[in-house]
Amino acid sequence: MKEYNLVIIGAGASGLLAGIAALEENIENVLIIEQEEDLGGNLNLFINNDFGEFHLGEKVPGPEFASILITTYISLNGQFKNNTRVLEITDNKKIKYVNPYEGEAEIIANKIILASGCREKYTGNIIVPIHKYTGIFSTAAAHRLVNFQGLLPGREVILSGNTMWTYILARRLVIEGAKVKGIITSRESVNEDLANIIDEFDVPVICNSEVVEVGGSERIEWARIENYSGKEESKIIECDSLVLAIGYYPEIDYLKNSNIKINEDSLEIENYKTSIDDIYCCGTIINGRNGLFNSGEDGYKVGKIVASQMK
């Protein structure tokens, strides 16, 4: 069984920078395992100019930051396996994985850093039928469609969500030629940071409301919006696509057979350490989507910590 000094699960900003930090400290035989074909993780989804200032001294778009990190990691002789899904991590740091090239295989690590990030997950918080019609997307799926494939989810779009990613997507859709017919938010008002994202983009925000019903034939054609206060009648807005913000949870299914302590879908950690010796974690796997802009900073810090213990 092949052994590595350090194995990092996940090739987003935190995973790549953890690997870079370790390699800069002359730790050899470092491997990153990534389940997607492309390294870079969520950085590839967001073209807004908000990433990497802590590392580069300036802000750059997500894909550019990803490209810089990938190039740096490889130039330092970092190894990676893409299209590779981790199936299990045992307490003795044995990692079982599967990919199209090797089938199912196992390796062992001296130390492990979990940087697998978060993924969207429906948790019952959406009350409309998401599989009955085409044209209904999650926020990340819509970002991926626009940024990876150069396609619009629709021409007349309604978005529902309270996060900055909803507002960033709304702005991007307008730039690409779609008409955003409304952002539906449960908040009573929009804070200044979110309002600034769509400033001058003519995107209406419908506050204190939610999407309660959708209709159409095969594709969604309208959505009914209900106001929480009851002071306004429900309204129907015609659309050809609906983008929904859903749950966002740590990608830790592969830990289910380990004894790492997990509390309600969250890892129990102290100073980036899990409850198992020599297994660490960093990035959005800890901080969720709100930590995306600085997840690489976490990763770099953890990479240095782990490297110092291996000398």
UniProtKB/TrEMBL annotation:
InterPro entries with a match to the protein in the record: FAD/NAD-bd_sf, FAD/NAD-binding_dom, Metab_Enz_Cyan_OpOx_G3PDH
Residue ranges annotated for the FAD/NAD(P)-binding domain, each copy included: 4-286
Keywords for the protein's UniProt record, in alphabetical order: Oxidoreductase
Record SUPFAM superfamilies: FAD/NAD(P)-binding domain (SSF51905)
EC number of this enzyme: 1.18.1.2
Top-rank EC class of the record's enzyme: oxidoreductase
Coiled coil stretches, renumbered: none
Gene Ontology molecular functions: ferredoxin-NADP+ reductase activity
Pfam families: Pyr_redox_2
PANTHER family, A to Z: ANAEROBIC GLYCEROL-3-PHOSPHATE DEHYDROGENASE SUBUNIT B
Protein name: tRNA uridine 5-carboxymethylaminomethyl modification protein GidA
